[in-house]
Request: fold
Amino acid sequence: MTNRVCVVGAGPVGVVAAIACAQKGLRVTLLEDEHEIDHSPRAATTHPSTLEMLAELGLLEEFRAVGLVARHFQFWDGEQKTLVAEFDHEVLRDETPYPYVVQTEQHKLVEIGLRRLAATGGASVRRGARVTGVEQDGERVTVLVVGPAGKERLDFDYAVACDGARSTVRKSIGVKFEGYTWPERFLVLTTLFDFESALRCCARNYISDPEEWTNLFKVSGDDFKGRWRAVFPARENESDEDAFSEDSVRRRMTKLAREHPMELVVHRNIYRVHQRVAASFRKGRVFLAGDAAHVNNPVGGLGLNCGIHDAMELAETLHLVASGRATVDVLDRYERRRRPLNIEYVQQQTVANKKRLEERDPRARQKNFDELRRTAADRTLHKQFLMRTSLIESARKAWEIS
Reply:
């Protein structure tokens, strides 16, 4: 009998999980509370290791066509406005068929994935279906849903929680979300201004500044004309009103480029940032993936990528059991692989990325810059650095965990 899998949450991780499971012959139901796709600016960088997975699902060509292909990223000294080091994914040419990242909005992957699911046999999508909890025993997991038809109890063999950092499913199964919240929030300003021409920078930039660092990168935009996002740390006691004020926005944008006109700022957002990992990624027949399992600051663009890796790993694991190629004992492997790798590669790396950008001590800043220059100049070190930041190293390490 084909196993029935419920995926909760139709964000990019949930959609990828649903496609991956359906393509392996599992019967999938994807449940989503919202009626419309969220188009707010969220994750935007898809790394080579993740592009390999999208290619495996047959999604890459369409996804790449709606994004920007970016080979390089740069580190800048914001205080002196000088380039410190540039890294080129081309050094990974022998390691991956995709030696670049794709810069585009995550909702485009959701849209592409939902179209693919609609054409996939054995998969159904229900929007406006709010999951309120789960129950399970040794034979099944029951998902409690409130939708247009009222309250329902839906039975499945397995449930996959992709319902975000505030995951109802994670709370329902009593798994703690361990970690901390950064004291400062992150302010995101989206603009049509062409920083590439003004600063002679590339499409991905990390700007170190002891007073106010910036993560500056370009995405394709829904109109494909390109737009830039600048991520800043808000001051600890800075209100939303102050952060969004004309004076505040003008100060931050003109610090990057003196000639930046205010009318080109098209979106403003501010949010809290966490570094948290679920105490367990599995409880019985329920699995956690993506933000339901782990969250991190966005510097480096690793969170969504790791979530997609979760989805692919889990689909393969469930398939091994459903096909009779492995016993249920293999289900424990999902946590053995995904949880420690998230801590080692995503949590540690994103914390280090943020600390590098915000470093205030002049000697420590200079040491960071010297190390970046040395790494970029040495081909072996350059490649090692990118193997880690692109999550190729973590994906391969996962294969070694039995």
